[in-house]
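A further point concerns the way the authors explain their paired sequence and structure data. Since the whole study asks how a given chain folds, the encoding of that fold should be made plain. A single example would do more here than another paragraph of explanation. An entry of this sort, consisting of the sequence and the corresponding backbone structure tokens, reads as follows:

_____
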Amino acid sequence: SSSGSSNILQEKLPDFSKYGSIENVSMNKIRKVTATHLSYAWSNIPHVTQFDKADITELEKQRKLLNPKVEKTGGKLTVTSILIKVITSALKIFPTFNCSIDMDKQEIIYKKYFNIGIAIDTENGLIVPVLKNTDTKDLTRLSVEMGELAKKARTRKIGLDELQGACITITNLGGIGGTSFTPIVNSPEVAILGVSRGSFEPVYIDKSFKPKLMLPLSLSYDHRIIDGADAARFLRWICEALEQPMKILLEE
């Protein structure tokens, strides 16, 4: 099967110049690849998105407390770097999220390694560097590596090998805003986790409302291999791990 755009029906465009002034600009290389790849993924993967929220009130306090220590090593402890650790543990418990589908052979390929893609917004477009073997690295090292890869991506110094081999992708739009979104699965992966901006909300606990910092999460997944109940469990596990970090130590 072709991964190019040749198999995707294209609508014939009207002559826009009839309606006013226009400018034609050629797509850059990254935009061409992104357009082709996402068209293929959207056309071939039956997408569903599961939404949930995590109470990160305590986690945020700990993050601010520990960040100076991480900064001394040249990194930055962020929600994304914490999520890399959490999602790595989740993949061990839910192996269906760490697989790919071979429709030609009618096989499911389960991966025994843990590589996490991080979507980076650059001037030239979306780039997804991959942190390798995340199960063997602590939070400090993951934070440092993520910063280094993001810098390489933004300065166009990233190697092709650093953009390949992801098991699942995290895309964080929280720094910009928004309450939720429906990210497109980065084929041949089977799931992608979208992160929106955390905000304080009144949460009803012990007969009263208390302000809690809630983080909205959006999990898009390939419905050919992942059922709705499994997606709900996977995302709930991630939320609970953010709320109770000991969960990772107990269940991994």
Notes: The radius of gyration is 20 Å. The longest helix spans residues 29-44. Residues 1-6 have pLDDT under 50 and may be disordered.
